Task: structure prediction
Amino acid sequence: MIGGHEVTDDRGGPTVPGPVPGDVDLGRVWLGVAAQVWRRSPGPLERLATRVLRSPGLARALVTTPSLLLGWVVATMVVLVAGALATRGTGTPFVALLAPGVAAAGIAYGYGPGIDPAWELSCSMAVSDRMVLLVRALAVFGLNAVLGLAASAASGAATAVTFGWLVPMAAVCALALATATVAQSANVGVAAGVAGWVIMVLSGQAAAGRLAAAVTDTALVLPYLAFAACCAVIVLVATRIPRGMS
Amino acid sequence: MNVEVSDLTRKLGRTQAVAGVTMATGPGVFGLLGPNGAGKTSLLRMMATVLPPSSGRIRLLGRDPGDYGQRKQIRRRLGYLPQNLGYYPRFTVVEFVEYFALLKEMPPARVHHAVAATVERVGLGDKAKAKLRTLSGGMLRRVGIAQAIVNEPELLLLDEPTAGLDPEQRVTFRALLRDLGQHATVIVSTHLVEDVGAACSQVGLMNRGKLVFQGTPGELTARAEGTSAAGDSPLERGYSAMLAQARS
Result:
């Protein structure tokens, strides 16, 4: 520690004699300097998130989202761009058909044991783990929506396709999240979300004779939303801490 | 009392990890001893509000962790070091400690100074800007301790805090524990009896999910009198004698 009239560099440096007044607490001075030198400057995304969420902790939790890491973003873009190109060539809305599965994986890999390295520690924090979960889910959803919008704009059918995929995407993501939460496994969540979506697409094709029926049939909007709501309730119940412990 | 627990149980699958623990403790350092699988970690995780109990009653810092608002208040005043500390390899020491200071909702204006003071306190000043992936196991343990104490917690829960620390660091850490225990309730789970002897004013011994002893280290030592319990120190012999009694 630094203090008194003689300053000893406790990192192995030389002893520095100095005309330091006795009432100056050099330890405190050093901590003030260290606090300034060591402080981290948040990036623009984190600053924006801090303003929007009004919570520096939540903003930091958001930018550490595993599924927002660069590799994941690139993989998502590749999948959606390939989907857009295939849509142009065939007329089938592959972007809308692929997006729910991609988003479900992103949501399931956004939070949880084995995915977030410091998950257990995060669960003991004042910033609610449910809030972290919600914000990360919204971030993944938002990112996929933006990427999908760009892709569908390129294919020239933005509005219809956007609504066509956003609603089923909500249902599939909710299924993945609920399964991941109950099973305590992101992999199981992804498997459930993707499998559920494949079944939906194939059954749409069997019933209507069109591969894209799962994203173009407007009669499915309400069932999708109801299903998403049920899964959200399951997530809430699975992450609650029971009352009556005291 | 800062920690009040009554008939607390927790089942993990078919295993009864905690089987009706009742205890109460105030400020000071409380050592939680026991063999592997005794239920120490599960008990600590329930106190850290990470794991809900299957049944029983628990009050922390005079509040009910089952109530959302009160749980938030507890967590602001809580420090927790899990047995297996997960970390973000690309974070620096300062970034990691700061992240958890923010998640504990410390006032942002206080965070930078508190982080610097804590990093110095655990002796990692010269590694403040080092990435976590470059640190040794002992240094990572100290990073974990730093995030646990950065908010000057009223309740500090440490699960095997000295694992990976070298003898010199352990001596320093015990001094830190005694210092923290002057104002806060510190509960330390360990299987190293010497840590308890050096730093704890109270000790509890768990076996098969039950708290089979609660008292002072001196009282635990006295349990070895008149027995042929094994151990290299009086406290270890007391530990062995109490454990043998609980198993018989």
Remarks:
- The two ends of chain B are 32 Å apart (CA to CA).
- Strands of chain B lie at 3-12, 15-25, 28-33, 55-60, 78-81, 155-159, 185-189, 202-207, 210-215.
- The mean pLDDT of chain B is 92.
